[in-house]
Target: DUF1194 domain-containing protein
Amino acid sequence: MLTTLAVLMGLSGLVPAAQAGGSEVDVTLVLAVDTSRSMDFEEIGIQREGYVEALKHKEFIDAVKGGLTGRIAISYFEWAGYVVQDSVIDWQVIETEEDAIAFADKLEARPIATQRRTSISTAIAQGASMIVSSPFQSRRQVIDVSGDGPNNSGNPVSPARDKAVEAGMIINGLAIMLRPSDAPNGLDKYYADCVIGGPGAFVLPVRKIEDFAVAVRRKLVLEISGLSPPATVQKTAGGETGADCLIGEKQWRDMFDR
Model:
């Protein structure tokens, strides 16, 4: 499956380190965090605090220890219209509370900045590339995307999602809905129809800023445990009218056509 993804993503020159006898973990988890300018510095700061707090929380550590191997591999990056290269925190094994705190400290030390546009497709492709080249063998490979708007830059989101899912990866979403969304029927509906995919994939909405830390922790625990929350928004079944997965691109184009 990894070889398939390398071809699909145009990454055929990469040889997954797992093929060379990498370490076994329960989950390889990429945290892909939106830092687009549609969020202000306060919101991005609270988002950052949410991830730091979740990674240090006992519930997260217990979920890691409860797996078959009792260890996961985790990495992190920020994105907007492109991947912020100096934001990438490379793979680290989480096995103990000390491991989790060390990773959280790296994240907490990151300067807070914002960038233009929103390319969820680029975030998915980056997450898939990092999983392909990771030095780990895992039972589940998860790309965890948080964002506050629809894709409006780069390639369309659904084909990027489909390629990663075809290769056996799971994409989950955290839909940040602190303000009215550009996505008709809600950003959580857009994420459900256009972004998430794979066995047990889910999207969690965040509607109040004070709920962010709890939502992040809940999401991480579910991902590590391989569980899904009760569905709050259903993926549209085939044949029915779902979210317009090109709505962000259309809105961006219309803005410049006026």
About this structure: The two ends are 45 Å apart (CA to CA). The mean pLDDT is 87. The longest strand covers residues 23-34. The chain is about 40% helix and 20% strand.
